[in-house]
Amino acid sequence: MFRYTDYIPLPPWSDGEPGSPYRNAKNPVGDRRRRIGQGIVSLSVLVNLYFLYATFTSWPAPLDNYQALNTHPILDTKALVAIKPANSQDNVIVTGLYTDAFATAVATLGHTLNVANSSAARLLYYLPDKVSERALCIATVSGWEPVRIERIAPPFRGVHRHFLDQYSKLHLWTLDQRGYQSVMYVDSDTIVRRNFDEVFRLPYTFAAVPDVYTDSQGYVTAFNAGVMFLRPDTELFHDMVSKIATAHYPAEQAEQAFLNHYFGAEVLRLPYAYNGNLAIKKRTPKLWTALQDEMRIMHLTMAKPFLQGDYAEVAMDQLERNAERVARKKPVFKEEIAEWVEAWLETRRTYASKLVKCNAL
Fold first, then answer.
1. Is 31 within a domain?
2. Residue 9: inside a domain
3. Would you say 337 and 344 are in contact if contact means Cβ atoms under 8 Å apart?
4. In degrees to the nearest 10, what's the CA dihedral of 316, 121, 270, 334?
5. Which domain holds residue 288?
6. How many domains does the chain have?
7. Residue at 229 is within a domain
8. The CATH number of the domain where 250 resides is what?
9. Which residues are paired to 313 by β-bridges?
10. How far apart are the C-alpha atoms of 137 and 354, rounded to whole Å?
11. Are strands 182-186 and 91-97 parallel, antiparallel or unpaired?
12. How would you classify the pairing of strands 307-308 and 297-299?
């Protein structure tokens, strides 16, 4: 029955220990390969951990650890006196309306400009195929002069769908044909806190505020195209349009990426007070607090109380309730949302009769 009477099986716990009937044979090649494999796996884990860390952190910047050391005002009024005052007829403030959903925001922006007593003219760029008569009426109650513009289509695929019409902003550079020598462009999701007419006395051809991100990018040298000062030049406009399809830049960021390439080496970077991006508050609350007394323009980039869902229009009688919903979702911006609502309510009271007529359209 037992054919191999002298066979003694190797116990699993012996592992070739001295005294065992059998000992494991050494395999130096296999051991070396195993160690190499373990080393590669360990290195791969370390590399992946590094990239995960780099994704959620950034190289430290001074503004990340902002300290209120400098108490001097941004504007040197004594120096400004020495500069020849700008002719108000030469200056214009422009915003855009590319969808009905932003009509109440444009009206509110215009009212805050009136309160700030800006001396510049006001123009509203709009796309006639995308904006209704009613929305245009609402947007212009606070004094904007509507100007029809032709849409400049994106030259690439991959543009973020909220930015598909933003290349039309390049028409700003044609305003020399209307006799304007200086232009201040402000996005419709902004409100004006105080007069900024001093920018019209800048001797530069282009100026904007550095952008801010809440992720690892943080504070960057690239500028945000939501607030820009420029000297219009139709010849330059044609040059830009001829190059938007051949220049190399991230398609998703549309005209902002293109303008950063076009003016990146020459742009005058304005203080953050001229484009109070809500991302600053999320990134460095202390810096946001320090900007309050000097802020000229607040940019509601991360919380839009006048929109619902995915950039959908909100009825005027629902704006306050909608703003409350936005504030609950983004409580860090509760104060800024409340400030916009207050400005809207003032707008509604001031232009009540005009708004009634607009709603009847």
1. no
2. no
3. no
4. -20
5. 88-359
6. 1
7. yes
8. 3.90.550.10
9. 307
10. 8
11. parallel
12. unpaired
Query: Which residue is associated with the tokens 């708004």?
Result: 355
Q: Are the CB atoms for 101 and 312 separated by under 8 Å? A: yes
Alpha-carbon distances of 350 from 111, 188, 303, 344, rounded to whole Å: 9, 19, 25, 10
Q: Residue 349 and residue 113: Cα distance in Å, rounded?
A: 16
What digits encode the pLDDT tens for the residues 143-200?
A: 999 999 999 999 988 888 888 999 999 999 999 999 999 999 999 999 999 999 999 9
Q: What is the 3-state secondary structure (H, E, C) of the chain?
A: CCCCCCCCCCCCCCCCCCCCCCCCCCCHHHHHHHHHHHHHHHHHHHHHHHHHHHHHCCCCCHHHHCCCCCCCCCCCHHHHHCCCCCCHHHEEEEEEECCHHHHHHHHHHHHHHHHHCCCCEEEEEECCCCCCHHHHHHHCCCCCEEEECCCCCCCCCCCCHHHCCHHHHHHHHHHHHHCCCEEEEECCCEEECCCCHHHHHCCCCEEEEEEECCCCCCEEEEEEEEEEEECCCHHHHHHHHHHCCCCCCCHHHHHHHHHHHHHCCCCEECCHHHCEEHHHHHHCHHHHHHHCCCCCEEECCCCCCCEECCCEECCHHHHHHHHHHHHHHCHHHHHHHHHHHHHHHHHHHHCHHHHHHHHCC
Q: 95 φ, ψ to 5°? A: -135, 180
- State which amino acid sits at residue 166: Q
How many residues are listed for the chain in this entry? 361
Domain for residue 17, yes or no?
Answer: no
**CA torsion 132→174→272→146, rounded to 10°?**
-30
Q: What is the pLDDT of residues 77-124, one digit of tens each?
A: 888 888 877 788 999 999 999 999 999 999 999 999 999 999 999 999
Tell me the whole-structure pTM to 2 decimals.
Answer: 0.83
Rounded Cα distance, 129 and 54, in Å: 45
